[in-house]
């Protein structure tokens, strides 16, 4: 079977630059890598074909010979570009392994084993911390300044975060020469692993600090003053940059995230920026109407007029008496919800008066009268 043109294999023009050729091969290698194409039996052959094409076109001398003589440049000693192998590759310096090695870092070099390739980590950022803070509804309404104690890791004062005795700088790892990784050739592939000596740090501490044991940080409780803005609710998250765990070997500190939980209140129920207050009223007060005094979340009092004939569940709104808006001006509203209370433990005189009242109330209960008319119609319909 005739070999495909190397430029067609990589999908580039004959006048493509070295960077364009490398970029095209990188894309092909990612698309055709056998590990990503387990269900495509042709992928491995195409992968090797792309590597073969790149091995020739990346080299200026080989590329010039190929441009002049085509595939014949590498057959029968013509062009001096290496002898063709029985399996289709080319011998000499340029082979599949070297072609793939050129883009190995591009394909697999972003993150390996939690360490960034291209150098070890002299310092590691500290972990982020979470603190759960419970506040009352009154505190959430007015906001507050609160001091909290956070158990965390802080920079060791003895070694100033270096992890070495006397604050000396760590030494370069002799195994990986500071790269934090070691490479080994396995057939066509170059395998890279985290350095076993320095665990990827690229440096070692010869004389560890006797206080922190070489970590560069120690466990300690820290007292922090936190500003809780008015209007917070359960689930609100407050970030304190750099107040998390100290980094290793002088690395930057992580962040502290405070998660707010607002406690339930005995009088008020919260729904977003609005508050609801369940107020019981006597049957007589609901029937006759009048004024009642209700509490507000700021500790004040408000007088509310109950309309005559109010029923259970009726709501009255007090504008601006709810919770402050966390990200905006003004505040929500407060809703008074009436619960008409039925009297209990009646005296004989009260029973007598209620019976008399009931006898005189035939036309004073429109809702119940309408309901029972519907019931009578329903029963008559069932009989029919």
Automatic annotation (TrEMBL):
GO CC annotation terms, alphabetical: cytoplasm
Residues where Zn(2+) 2 binds: 173, 176, 195, 198
Domain of life: Bacteria
Entry's Gene Ontology BP terms: DNA replication; protein refolding; response to heat
Ranges: CXXCXGXG motif repeats: 156-163, 173-180, 195-202, 209-216
Co-factor note (free text): Binds 2 Zn(2+) ions per monomer.
UniProt-listed PROSITE patterns: DNAJ_1, DNAJ_2, ZF_CR
CR-type domain: residues covered: 143-221
Domain J: 5-70
Subcellular location, record wording: Cytoplasm
Positions with a binding annotation for Zn(2+) 1: 156, 159, 209, 212
Description of how the protein assembles with itself and partners: Homodimer.
Domain notes for this protein: The J domain is necessary and sufficient to stimulate DnaK ATPase activity. Zinc center 1 plays an important role in the autonomous, DnaK-independent chaperone activity of DnaJ. Zinc center 2 is essential for interaction with DnaK and for DnaJ activity.
Function (record text): Participates actively in the response to hyperosmotic and heat shock by preventing the aggregation of stress-denatured proteins and by disaggregating proteins, also in an autonomous, DnaK-independent fashion. Unfolded proteins bind initially to DnaJ; upon interaction with the DnaJ-bound protein, DnaK hydrolyzes its bound ATP, resulting in the formation of a stable complex. GrpE releases ADP from DnaK; ATP binding to DnaK triggers the release of the substrate protein, thus completing the reaction cycle.
Name of the protein this chain belongs to: Chaperone protein DnaJ
Protein encoded by which gene: dnaJ
């Amino acid at each position: 079977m005739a070999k495909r043109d190397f430029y067609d294999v990589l999908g580039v023009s004959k006048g493509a630059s070295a960077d364009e050729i490398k970029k095209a091969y990188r894309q092909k290698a990612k698309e055709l890598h056998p590990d990503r194409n387990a269900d495509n039996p042709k992928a491995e052959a195409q992968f090797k074909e792309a590597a073969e094409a790149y091995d020739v076109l990346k080299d200026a001398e080989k590329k010039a010979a190929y441009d002049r003589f085509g595939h014949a440049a590498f057959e029968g000693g013509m062009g001096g570009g290496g002898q063709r192998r029985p399996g289709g590759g080319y011998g000499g310096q340029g082979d599949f392994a070297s072609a793939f090695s050129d883009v190995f870092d591009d394909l697999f070099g972003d993150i390996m084993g939690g360490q960034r390739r291209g150098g070890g980590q002299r310092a590691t950022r500290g972990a982020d911390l979470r603190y759960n803070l419970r506040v009352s509804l009154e505190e959430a309404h007015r906001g507050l300044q609160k001091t909290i104690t956070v158990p965390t890791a802080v920079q060791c004062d003895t070694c100033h975060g270096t992890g070495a005795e006397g604050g000396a700088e760590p030494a370069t790892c002799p195994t990986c020469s500071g790269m934090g990784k070691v490479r080994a050739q396995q057939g066509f592939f170059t395998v890279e692993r985290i350095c076993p000596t320095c665990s990827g740090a690229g440096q070692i501490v010869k004389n560890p600090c006797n206080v922190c044991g070489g970590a560069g940080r120690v466990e300690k409780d820290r007292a922090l003053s936190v500003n809780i803005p008015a209007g917070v609710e359960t689930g609100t998250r407050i970030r304190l940059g750099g107040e998390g765990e100290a980094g290793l070997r002088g690395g930057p500190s992580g962040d502290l995230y405070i998660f707010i939980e607002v406690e339930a209140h005995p009088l008020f129920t919260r729904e977003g920026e609005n508050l609801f207050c369940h107020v019981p009223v006597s049957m007589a007060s609901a029937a006759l109407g009048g004024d009642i005094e209700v509490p507000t979340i700021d500790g004040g009092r408000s007088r509310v007029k109950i309309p005559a004939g109010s029923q259970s569940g009726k709501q009255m709104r007090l504008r601006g008496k709810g919770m402050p808006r966390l990200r905006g001006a003004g505040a929500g509203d407060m809703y008074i919800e009436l619960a008409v209370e039925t009297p209990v433990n009646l005296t004989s005189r009260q029973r007598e008066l209620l019976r008399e009242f009931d006898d005189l109330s035939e036309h004073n209960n429109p809702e119940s009268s309408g309901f029972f008319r519907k019931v009578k119609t329903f029963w008559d319909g069932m009989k029919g």
